[in-house]
Amino acid sequence: MATAGTKIDVQKGILTMTVFDTTVGFHIFDAMRSPMHLGDCFCIDVVDDLVESSFIESSSKDPLETSIAHHGMEFHDEVILKEAKALSVGLPTSSLNH
What we know:
Elements: E1 4-9, E2 14-19, E3 22-27, H1 28-33, H2 44-59, H3 63-69, H4 78-89
Antiparallel strand pairs: 1-2, 2-3
Helix pairs in contact: 3-4
């Protein structure tokens, strides 16, 4: 991902990721000591979809570009929804006689 920077400090056991202006740190050694709960992992799929749609909606300032580039996705932003609906209705076509 071109917009993300990842740093791994092996000595401290910290993995740091920066996307745009947000930085998140993961303490690797602490995570490895915790017992694994398989039931907790089932919510990742839901979160992943929400993160993806939010990222796509906020990645472009132009709602028309977003709705064209990601046709078929479900959007929550009202402006993008309006543009996507206009695209799905389509423009009138003119018949050209040659």
